[in-house]
Amino acid sequence: MKLFGLVLALSLPLGLIVAVVKVYGPTVVQWFITLYIYVMRGTPLLLQLMFVFFGLPYIGITLDRFPAAVFAFVLNYAAYFAEIFRGGMVGVPAGQFEAMKVLRIDHFKGYRKVIFPQVLKTTLPSIGNEVLALVKDTSLVYILGLGEVLRAGQIAANRYASLIPFIFVGVLYLIVTGVLSYMLNKIEKRYQR
Amino acid sequence: MLVIDRLGKQMNGTDLIKDFSLKVKRKEIVSIVGESGSGKTTFIRLLNQLEKPDEGQIKLDNDHLFTDQRSNKSASTKIGMVFQDFQLFPNLTVKENCMLSPLLNKTLSKKEAELKVNDLLGKLDISDKRDAYPDELSGGQKQRVAIARSLMLEPQILCLDEPTSALDYETADRFGELLKSIIKNNVGIIMITHDLRFAEKFSDRIISLQQFLN
User: Fold this and answer.
1) Model confidence over A103-157: pLDDT tens digits?
2) A21, A29 in Cβ contact below 8 A?
3) Cβ neighbours of residue B206 under 8 Å, at least 6 residues apart?
4) Which of A106, A116, A117, B139 has its CA 20 to 30 A from that of B207?
5) Are B89 and A114 an interchain contact pair (Cβ–Cβ within 8 Å)?
6) Can you list the domains of chain A with their CATH numbers?
7) Chain A contact for B104 (CB, 8 A cutoff)
8) How many structural domains does chain B have?
């Protein structure tokens, strides 16, 4: 839960920054970002986790389990969020920017008042998908030996030779994702315009 | 008075607009006609600094809007523009659409802006829509909101791109009367249209862009 909150709080703004730079930044930086997104989306998150925690120490960078998990997750999720935001930004008609210009609305202020709310509206459903995926992906940290609910479930299943702990874990996930889905729906409704 | 002197714009190496001169006074409606691709829309985009001319001058009273390939941003507030597809901001209400620019630029206080928007929406007969969102409006209503939004900035010249393209005869005529009442407030109107009937009925002058190209 702590991992989920932290990753979400860091990767959403980072994703937005990456998207803005990818759309408006200098060409060289755009290439770099394209490569970053390609690598993050093109390799398994599990591999990225292992790379950061088990791989980086070989070149002298050693992170504790939790910071390693946060680092890998944020890099991965920021890439996905960046692509979602970029899609939303490109989808705003050029005429909206021209209207801002003709009305002498400053680019930055206009972005905040006019463009960004439109980007949010179109991207919220996709962001919601990623948020739910993140809840489930946090189970991957068991590979780093971090205690989490799936690991606890497996230990319990082994100890009692029972199916029940797995069902219990599934129900836990459903409760968390259910609450989140409800909240995401509320947010989507608020940005319907 | 808006003075356009030997304006030229090239596109892909050929002259789209060449040696185009025009004067537009306040309280005057000037229609610009011409076939598709004749540079009509480019012309008002030049006036609104959405594109840069290659040659010529644009002056408004004593302010140079454009000379020698340099444009002057501060003077450009005196020209307003209503897009063919209006480009209202979908996430803002009618009132917010109109008040956004004056409030962000601090040219009006909130109270002044409220008074002004109420007055304009009243004149344009859409007071009851002040809290509606653009997607709740008809095409004609959106157009009037877009006009109100432009008039909030008190332009001396208002440019309209194909204003009657989405209107039936009857609505277009009412719209024409509306334009006549707008210019009484010391505003000049330049409209681009290929609706000759409308242009002949409501404008003081009709200019064809083609005649300037040879």
Assistant:
1) 989 888 999 999 999 999 999 999 999 999 999 998 888 878 777 788 888 888 8
2) yes
3) B30, B31, B32, B33, B196, B199, B200
4) B139
5) yes
6) 2-137 (1.10.3720.10)
7) yes
8) 1
